[in-house]
Design a protein that fits this description.
- With 362 residues, the chain is α+β, with helices and mostly antiparallel strands.
- It folds into 3 domains: 82 residues, Uridine Diphospho-n-acetylenolpyruvylglucosamine Reductase, domain 2, CATH 3.30.43.10; 168 residues, Uridine Diphospho-n-acetylenolpyruvylglucosamine Reductase, domain 3 (2-Layer Sandwich); 86 residues, UDP-N-acetylenolpyruvoylglucosamine reductase, C-terminal domain (Uridine Diphospho-n-acetylenolpyruvylglucosamine Reductase, domain 1, Alpha-Beta Complex).
- It starts with a helix and ends with a helix.
- The structure holds flavin-adenine dinucleotide (FAD).
- The site of flavin-adenine dinucleotide has 32 residues, from α5, β8 and β12.
């Protein structure tokens, strides 16, 4: 171990530091080799200090949230892998109507990722009956640290009469991970609720970015192309109907529970609506293509298998390796390429792999 590593280890709180920590313990899918140094900072200040120090020592830094959207290689991740363990939720003041109108103008409207359509019967669960908008309710500011587990936040806030997050029930993740990829629940995207985000820049400064600076889109944000680290965000939530929101969160979570949790969510981005129309498919979802077009239901490599409950999910059925998981991804991509001439793009992030292992996937 080099001198730089020793210096970093010596300066971090030993209680929250582990060497060669298996990252399979920190991902929902239960896959991932060791991190050289694993650290769970207990406050935003500790989080910032650890990142700035590692960067100064030229040690690579990787941030993990709940690990529900990352496939980590079997050889793990070199350098420092850290998680923000700071969990503050601060309820602020009501937002004036004028300010709400200004903010609404800045929200990027993104086309929903999929529509509920029970008539065509292509979805494993429906949500249309649960959808409503709360735009007439007063808005309230809530500042949430990037390390907050959002399942906890949804529950905590609804119990206080603060709504708006009910569409995201049962989606795993911390606020940082949710913002990074603009998480979507049904027809809603988290960018609709964001006012601003506090970030740590590459140069070690803390700055606040407005929602209009964040380049939100379908499965994308500014953070894919910047080395900024999300510290916290101010959300504009609603003082809405508490009982209705609670009902939706519980019902939504119940319907979503058919999705296998030892997974990474949807593996591929849906095809475009133009391609869907050209091919004459009833949906642009990848689950439909995998189940009905390339007919790979039940396909597995080792313990990594395509889920029968949702054919765009690959689950860990036992002791799957990243190599197995990648092979399932490659097989789906190759079959789709050969049979319908389309390149599928992963929605998940691949970390710790050699370029040669993943260049044909990306
Ligand atoms: C069963 C299941 C169901 C799912 N359903 C949905 C769904 O309905 N909709 C949906 O959109 N997604 C869904 N997902 C995918 C996943 O939950 C989301 O993408 C979520 O936003 C990931 O958050 P995370 O904290 O786990 O991020 P991680 O997987 O830990 O990280 C994802 C990326 O964000 C980066 N990151 C994390 N925190 C920070 C930070 N503070 N600063 C900078 N970068 C950071 C990481 O480096 C990584 O590149 C599902 C996943 C599972 C397993």
């Amino acid at each position: 171990m080099g001198e730089q590593y020793k210096e970093l280890i010596g300066k971090l709180n030993p209680k929250y530091l582990k060497l060669n920590e298996p990252l399979s313990l920190h991902t929902t899918v239960g896959i991932g080799g060791p991190a050289d140094i694993w650290y769970e900072a207990q406050s935003t200040e500790e989080f910032i200090e650890a990142i700035n120090l590692a960067r100064k020592l030229e040690i690579p830094v990787t941030i993990l949230g709940r690990g529900s959207n990352v496939l980590i290689s079997d050889s793990g991740i070199r350098g420092l892998v850290l998680k923000n363990g700071s969990k503050n939720i601060v309820i602020g003041s009501e937002v004036s109507v004028k300010e709400t109108e200004e903010l609404e103008k800045e929200v990027t409207k993104i086309e929903a990722r999929w529509a509920s359509d029970s008539e065509k019967g292509t979805f494993k669960y429906e949500f249309k009956d649960l959808d409503y908008d709360e735009l007439d309710s007063p808005r309230i500011e809530v500042k949430i640290d990037s390390g907050v587990d959002m399942a906890f936040a949804i529950n905590f806030l609804i119990n206080k009469g603060i709504t708006g997050l009910q569409w995201y029930a049962r989606i795993p993740g911390n606020l940082g991970g949710w913002i990074y990829n603009n998480v979507h629940g049904g027809t809603h995207f988290i960018n609709e609720l964001i006012k601003s985000v506090d970030v740590l820049t590459e140069n070690g400064a803390v700055i606040t970015l407005k929602v209009s600076d964040l380049n939100f889109g379908y499965d994308v944000s500014r953070f894919h192309n910047s080395n900024e680290i999300i510290l916290s965000a101010t959300l504009n939530l609603y003082k809405g109907d508490k009982e209705k929101a609670k009902y939706v969160a519980i019902e939504w979570a119940k319907r979503k529970s058919i999705q296998p949790h030892r997974s990474l969510g949807s593996v591929f981005k849906n095809i475009s609506i133009e391609d869907q129309k050209r091919l004459g498919y009833p949906t642009n979802g990848i689950g439909y293509i995998v189940e009905h077009v390339i007919k790979l239901s039940g396909y597995r490599v080792g313990d990594a298998g395509i889920s029968k409950a949702h054919h765009n999910f690959i689950e860990n059925l036992g002791n799957a390796s990243a190599k197995d998981y990648l092979q399932v991804i490659k097989t789906i991509q190759q079959k789709v390429q050969v049979e319908i001439g389309l390149k599928l793009h992963p929605e998940i992030f691949l970390i710790g792999f050699k370029p040669s292992e993943i260049e044909d996937i990306l």
